[in-house]
Amino acid sequence: MERRATSQLRGARIDCRADLGVESLKRGWGEFVGPEATRLDNVIAIGSGILGLAYARASATRVGAGRIAREALGALALDLFGGAYVNNTRACVRWYERAGQGRREHLVFAACHLHPLIVGVTDQRVGARNNGVAWGLVHYGYMLLATAVIRASPSRRRDLGAMLTVGGLVLDGVLDRSAAAPWFAWTYYPKLLLGHAAGSLWPDEHLGVDRWVASIGTTVYSESMKRTHDRPSADGTSR
User: CB 3.0–4.6 Å: which of 5, 119, 168, 220 could bond 189 by disulfide?
Assistant: First the structure.
């Protein structure tokens, strides 16, 4: 009897830890893609990332990239293919335009994306480019400058986001697109410029944004945003 009670107690503890682990995972994912992301958003984001990973590995294999390079490019594609979709969703844009997410935060996020340097070095190693670092730095510098321009002009964010994204694709053509990662620019710029920096093409009223205070780079949210997060879900809990 005592053994059975002990076994049941251990089982309950394991179940509790598993539940906490699942909730932590859900919370972490929500803070990454936006807590309002729908099931369809999640499926498309994860699915496109996985497809991108497979495509990137195949592309790298065709040009003779080594195992480490194939894995690295696959990881970049997982991020960029999924991010190009999710960073343009309403849920994700609302999340990254919430209070406290201003110019500095957006520039820090952009600065973390050193992807073009990895792509350029891989091209150089497979003999497709003479100076891969320079190629990567031009792409990286353009992306950072474009992000700063978009965040400094909130009233023109949608127009600037679209124009500077197209500018990135033109730049990629001028510099000669990557042999190891021909998909690079077509995912890098839509994710970071059109999506994250510009808030995609969503109008302010859809996002609950009253205004951007450009001088200090903060976002002020209307009460509609608060009501959306406080609204009870189907299971009776608040979002």
Answer: 168
Number of helical (H) and strand (E) elements in the chain, helices listed first: 11, 2
Beta bridge partners of 218: 213
Cβ 164 vs Cβ 143: under 8 Å: no
Give this prediction's pTM: 0.78
What is the residue-wise DSSP string for 79-136? HHHHHHHHTTSHHHHHHHTSTT--HHHHHHHHHT--HHHHHHHHHHHTTS-S-HHHHH
**Separation CA 152–CA 172 (nearest Å):** 24
- Pull the structure tokens for residue 194: 């059109």
Task: Work out the angle at residue 188's Cα, subtended by the Cα atoms of residues 69 and 128, and round it to the nearest 5 degrees.
Answer: 45
Q: At 224, phi and psi to the nearest 5?
A: -65, -35
Q: How many CB atoms lie within 10 A of CB 115?
A: 25
Span 44-62, pLDDT tens digits? 999 999 999 999 999 999 9
The per-residue pLDDT for range 168-188, each reduced to its tens digit, is 999 999 999 999 999 999 999
